[in-house]
Amino acid sequence: MANKFQKKSVLILFLFFSVASLAQFRAKEINWTADGTAYLKVTNGNIVRTDVKTGAETIVVKKEQLVPSGGDTPLSFDIYSFSPDYKTLLLFTHTAKVWRYHTRGDYWVLDLVSGRLVQLGKNLPSQSLMFAKISPDGRNAAYVSEHNLFLEDLSTNKITQLTMDGTRKFINGTFDWVYEEELGCRDGFRWSPDSKMIAFWQVDATKIRDYYMLNTTDSPYSRIIPVEYPKVGQQPSPVRIGVITVRDGAVKWMDIPGDPQAHYLPRMEWADNSDELVVQQLNRQQNESKLFYCSAKTGTATNFYTEDDHAWIDIKSVWNDDDPTGWDWLDGGKKFLWVSEKDGWRHIFLVSRDGRKETLVTKGAFDIGSVKSVDEKNNYVYFMASPNNATQLYLYRAKMDGKAKPELVSPSALSGTHDYNISPQARFALHSFSNYGTDPVHEWISLPDHRPIDEAKSIASTMKVKENSNIEFFKVTTEDSVVLDGWMVKPADFDSTKKYPVVFYVYGEPAESTVIDEYGGQDDFLYKGNLSKDGYFLISVDNRGTPSLRGAAWRKSIYGKIGRLNIHDLAMAAKKLLEKPFFDKDRVAVWGWSGGGSSTLNLLFQYPDIFKTGISVSAVDNLLLYDNIYEERYMGLPGEHMDDYVKGSPIYYAKNLQGHLLFIHGTGDDNVQYDNAEQLLNELIKYNKTFQFMPYPNRSHGISEGEGTRTHLSTLYTDFLRKNCPPGPK
Fold first, then answer.
1. Where are the alpha helices (DSSP H) in 453-525?
2. 240 sits in which H/E element
3. Which of 342, 356, 354, 352 is nearest to 292 (CA)?
4. Do 59 and 47 contact (CB within 8 A), yes or no?
5. How far apart are CA 365 and CA 370, in angstroms?
6. What is the CATH number of the domain that holds 561?
7. Where does 309-414 show beta strands of DSSP type E?
8. Orientation angle between helical segments 628-635 and 638-648, nearest 10 degrees
9. Last residue of a domain, one of 130, 161, 195
10. Distances (CA, A) of 681 to 168, 225, 232, 684, 688
11. Is the pLDDT of residue 27 over 70?
């Protein structure tokens, strides 16, 4: 559930790269050149450099250069990468999914001096290469193929296999399902700055039991699809980190203290030199984090920084735009930036290399959202935050000595959600903005003055504000004196003397907030039509425990209480809102996906007096059936908290069903697996409960595969809602 279904169904292509070796760019997106004065984009198959200030365009790579020998069509590519000197181009093509992301495919290298275009790993299976990276000295490429690491000499294209023991469940240079899903770990190796070594993760998932999905539609006989999946209560896969010497292939394993079956290693980077690594270790409960320096030569590990928490500790992907890679070294490697909630807020700290001295950079009773850029020359760090409204985001900056109050960079007059793609040296940025009544717009700006490069194309000149919006953001205080943020979309032609049906859209778990002041976030994306025009209220509320920027106590109050505290908050918010006379208490529906599907079931089962109709998609119905990293992070170990797991699961309350339930699940869901659905089915059958169930054959967690699937799902959802929670005023 860490990567729950995204309502806009946008395929996100993640970048995997070593900062010291290559700057990787996504096709169809705008990305900065190394000097920060221009950006690169793909136009008509050409890679084009555009000067930010002048708009002057220069073709860096012509599509004619990307035609393989003997062919007549340029390569179509998803990700492209330049070496630091821009003499070598790496292309990622013919990509395929590994679980959720297109991280497997073919790689090609173009020598921009000679014009030579060569496919890497040519003798290896097609579409099998992952995370190819050229060494910092430009001589070699390294990549993963079929769970092993390979080295390729770029002058001769000689391939050397570096690891020999890789299998589906013994993995070198990448990760198993749960590390990818819950820790954001995908690219599993790093070139040393001097190009002489490669540090890599090795995951031993051989003792993790397989969950067997069953493909019953693609052949006359069913086919078993195994997924190594550690459910709650299973020990983690042992993970270790090795350093390969490129010259002779010798491996030195890092001797990190602690039982590998009781710890995770979510982060590893070279420690701003080629002599040692810096590694983060989490205990199994994920409430203790230790940082180690590991000698690449001897493997000796030295713990230099430790922190703990009563609940859990977030890793870098939470505060680095879902990217767990990299390390923010400063002052020639003598200091680094770190984010912690140790004072009750998510703050940025400047830590000395030995971990003995730390400076609070972002002082104040507020959370940072994510770190956007470090301007070391001027001693500033740029970050997203919203001290006064947790539903919005703005750009701030703070002096890294911690002596000055953080200053707002975004224009305060633009109330809503901002985002920034900031150039190296923090001189320019691509600024994006929207709110519930303003279409998404963007502009190029200079920093730190936040002035548009071109006034005619500025946000102030191009933004379109929706007049007479029927969307309203609000705060509701429950009978427990808890203040919750929410939004509602009112029916068209609303008449306060009449009664209207209400649809609550929920998520409710620590992986996602639903109440964000941005355009489109208030749509019911499954409804076939327009809820407002059909006479419905649509409402969403963020309960305690969601990742809102309201302090660590807010976020971590849900520890051990998923399925209870969040459900109580949502129900009490609904109860308070429904006191308004224009809501029809007999026509109250709730729906959600993934964690929201679980919340839907719990609300329908635990509060049948409030919620009369529920539509649940891809839900975790029994918390003990989900993966260990996610659930144990937020619920503790089952041996110590079994009662919390049982009483937080929708299945525990299934006997209370009174209203109308539409229950939907994909049989090919590798994330929230189909056994969840069948266990709940059995429980509902046991208590003679009537409901509607729709299994989607071989569909994954997003239920998007197959011709006509999304149309069918939308039609099913809409028809069920309209039948059981009829539209229109009364």
1. 459-462
2. strand 239-245
3. 354
4. yes
5. 16
6. 3.40.50.1820
7. 329-330, 335-340, 347-352, 358-360, 368-375, 380-385, 394-399, 407-408
8. 90
9. 130
10. 32, 23, 21, 5, 10
11. no
- For residue range 499-543, what is the model confidence (pLDDT) as tens digits? 999 999 999 999 999 999 999 999 999 999 999 999 999 999 999
Helix axes 595-606 and 565-577, enclosed angle (nearest 10): 70
* Contact criterion met (CB below 8 Å) for 207 and 213: no
Cβ-Cβ contacts under 8 Å for 79 (sequence gap 6 or more)? 13, 15, 24, 25, 26, 27, 91, 92
How confident is residue 351, by pLDDT bands cut at 50, 70 and 90? Answer: very high
Tokens of 546: 């969601």
- Contact present, 612 and 660 (Cβ < 8 Å): yes
Beta-sheet pairing, 368-375 with 358-360: unpaired
Is residue 350 assigned to a domain? no
Number of domains in the chain: 2
Stretch 360-383: mean pLDDT, rounded?
97
Is 46 a domain residue? yes
**Mean pLDDT of all residues in the chain?**
94
Number of neighbouring beta carbons within 10 Å of residue 524 = 21
With CA atoms as reference, report the closest residue to 649 among 567, 590, 557, 547. 567
Backbone angles phi, psi at 261, to 5 degrees: -85, 5
Q: Burial code of 195-230, b = ≥16 C-beta within 10 A, e = fewer? A: bbbbbbbbbbbeebeebebeeeeeeeeeeeeebbbb
* pLDDT for 26: 52
| Mean pLDDT lowest among 184-188, 302-306, 316-320 | 316-320
The two tokens of residue 501 are: 């049906």
Q: What is the Cα–Cα distance from 397 to 405, expressed in whole angstroms?
A: 9
pLDDT at 605 over 90: yes
Structure tokens at 355: 């971990």
159 is written with which tokens? 């391939």
Please tell me the predicted confidence (pLDDT) of residue 6: 38
Helix ranges restricted to H, 309-356: 316-319
385 in Cβ contact with 339 (< 8 Å): no
- Long-range Cβ pairs for the range 574-578 (8 Å, 24+): 574/504, 574/539, 574/541, 574/603, 574/607, 574/610, 574/611, 575/478, 575/479, 575/610, 576/476, 576/477, 576/478, 576/479, 577/476, 577/486, 577/539, 578/502, 578/610
SS3 assignment for 598-664: HHHHHHHHHCCCCCCEEEEECCCCCHHHCEHHHHHHHHCCHHHHHHHHHHHCHHHHHHHCCCEEEEE
* Tokens matching residue 622: 């029994």
On whether residue 342 sits in a domain, the answer given is no
Evaluate whether residue 199 is within a structural domain.
no
| Whole-structure pTM value | 0.94
SS (H, E, C) 430-466: EEEEEECCEEEEEEEEECCCCEECCHHHCHHHHCCEC
Query: Which DSSP letter does residue 469 get?
Result: -
Query: Rounded CA gap, 621 and 1, in Å?
Result: 13
Single out the residue in 112, 130, 148 at which a domain terminates. Answer: 130
In this prediction, residue 3 has a pLDDT band, given cuts at 50, 70 and 90, of very low
pLDDT digits (tens, 9 = 90+) for 246-270: 999 999 999 999 999 999 999 999 9
The number of angstroms, rounded, from the C-alpha of 112 to the middle of its chain's C-alpha atoms is 35
Provide the terminal-to-terminal Cα distance of the chain, rounded to the nearest Å: 39
Give residue 61's domain range: 17-130
Q: Judge whether 338 and 326 are in contact, CB under 8 Å.
A: no
Q: How confident is the model at residue 29 (pLDDT cuts 50, 70, 90)?
A: low
Put the strands of the sheet holding 276-283 in their side by side order.
263-270, 276-283, 288-295, 301-308
**DSSP alpha helix (H) spans, 312-458:** 316-319
Q: What is the mean pLDDT of residues 334-350?
A: 97
- Sheet containing 428-435: give its strands across: 417-422, 428-435, 438-446, 451-452
Query: Whose CA is closest to 487, among 464, 460, 506, 468?
Result: 506
